[in-house]
Amino acid sequence: MTGLSASAGRCGTMPVHRRLLDTAPGYIATRADIEDFTFQECRRRRAEPPRVVRVPVVVHVVWHDEAQNISDDQVHSQITVLNADFRKRNADLTKVPQVWQSVVGDARVEFALATTDPNGAPTSGITRTRTGTTAFDTDDAVKSAATGGVDAWPAGTYLNIWACQLGGGVLGYAQFPGGPAATDGVVVLHSSFGTTGTAAAPFNGGRTTTHEVGHWLNLRHIWGDDGEGCGGDDFVADTPNQGGPNYGKPTWPTMSCQNGPDGDMFMNFMDYTDDDAMCCFTVGQAARMAACLAGPRASLAAGDADPPVDQRPTGDAAPPAALFRRWVHVREEDTPGVRVYRRADLPLPPARGRDGIEFHPDGTFVDLRPGPVDAPVGATGRWSADGDGCRLELTYPNGRAAACLHIVTVDENVLCLRPLAG
Ligand SMILES: [Zn+2]
C-alpha cells in the first residue's frame, strides 16, 4: 500500500484519499457530509463574497541531509506565494486568456506563520527536525515523531505543512477535509517549496504548495480524477470539462473532451503544469474553498485572532465559536428579556411557527422565519461583533432596522440572546 509506483504521479492526494476511504473510520460518511454541505453552501452564497480569512500556518522542516534543512527565507518565500495566489494578487495572472479573465477567483484566504505554539509560547511558526529517513512516502510517516517525522500541531487551529524529501517523483500531497486530525495538512518536497534556496525549476514558483493547499481546502484536480476520461467532475461549474492532466507549458488553446474552442484551463492551479504556466483559481473554486472554511474548517476561520484590519466586520472582537450553527427559538423557555435558542439539529417539542437564526463565521447570518408551510424562510444579513465579542449588531440588506443583541450564554447546545435597545 505504501509503495509508490511510477504512475503515482506528482501529486499524491488522490492515492492518500483512496487509502483513507479504505482505512480511516468514518471518513466515507464524513466526506459525503462535507460534499452535501459544500453543495448547499455554494448554492446559498453564490453572489456573496466571504470575508477574508487568515490561516495560521506551521511549517515543519524535516531533514536528513543538511541541504534539506531549508532556510527561513525559503519558508517565507512560500508564504508570500500563497498570499498572492489565494488573493488574486499574483503578477502572472496576465497569462489567463481573455475568455476566462471574468472567472478568475479571489479565494480571500491569507496565510501567516503562527506566532503562538500549541502551548501558548512564542514561535517563529517553523519547526526543525532531523530524521534518519532518506526519503518519505505518501504513507504519512513524516507526520509522526514515532515514524521519523514530527507530530502535527492541532489541526483545528493550524495549517500544518511538512517540507521534506519525498520519494517516487511525488512533489506533494494533501489530506482533504474530513480526515484524521493527526495527519491533517499538506506535505511538500523541499525542492518544490518556495522560490529560493533548494527550490528547483520548473517547480520553483511555490505552486506545488498552492495546489496542495487547494486540495486541503477541498478542491479537486481540474480534470476530475478519472484518468484521461471525460466523465470526471471537479464539482466546479466554471472550469471546462477536461480529459487528463496537462504537463509542462502548454500552448493555448489545448483541447480535450470536445471542449473547444477554448479548451483546457491548463493555467489553473489544480492542473499539473509547470509553476510558471499555472496562475489562477476560478470563482467556483473560490466558492468551494469558502464553503470549506464555513464548514469543516470553520475553526480556522473562527479562531482568526488577527484578521486583516480592513476586513474585520467591525470592532476587534470575535464571538464565541459555538455561535456558528443553526439555532431554533424555543419560546417556551424564554425568560423576561432573554430569548432562548437550541441547536437546530436536535429534536424539539413540536410547536408551530418556530423562528430561528443561523450564524456564519464569514460575517453573515440567516434570519429564519416561519413560512406558509412551516418551513423556515431565510433572510440573509450581516453581523458584526464588538466589546468582548458578545455584543452583536445585525444589519439587513433591505434597510430594515438593525438589531443589537447581547450573547448572555452560548455553548454547543444553547444560545441565550438579550435584545438591546438602540
Ligand atoms: Zn493534486
Question: How would you explain this protein's 3D organization?
Answer:
It comes from Micromonospora sonneratiae. Keywords: Disulfide bond, Hydrolase, Metal-binding, Metalloprotease, Protease, Signal, Zinc. The strands form three sheets. Strands 9-10-16-15-14-13-12-11 form an eight-stranded antiparallel beta barrel. Strands 1, 2, 3, 4, 5 and 6 form a six-stranded mixed beta sheet that branches. It is of the alpha/beta class. It has two domains: 6-294, Collagenase (Catalytic Domain), CATH 3.40.390; 313-420, Lipocalin, CATH 2.40.128. It has six helices and 16 strands. The longest helix is centred in the first third of the chain and has 18 residues, at 27-44. The termini are far apart. The protein is globular and about 65 Å long. Bound molecules: zinc ion (ZN). The site of zinc ion (ZN) has 5 residues, from helix 4.
Question: In summary, what is this structure?
Answer:
With 422 residues, the protein is of the alpha/beta class.
How does the SSE layout of this entry go?
Elements: H1 13-23, H2 27-44, E1 53-63, H3 72-85, E2 109-113, E3 126-130, E4 159-164, E5 172-174, E6 186-189, H4 207-216, E7 247-248, E8 272-273, H5 283-294, H6 298-302, E9 326-329, E10 339-343, E11 356-359, E12 364-370, E13 376-386, E14 391-395, E15 403-410, E16 414-420
Parallel strand pairs: 1-2, 1-3, 1-4, 4-6, 7-8
Antiparallel strand pairs: 5-6, 9-10, 9-11, 10-16, 11-12, 12-13, 13-14, 14-15, 15-16
Helix pairs in contact: 2-5
Bound molecules: zinc ion.
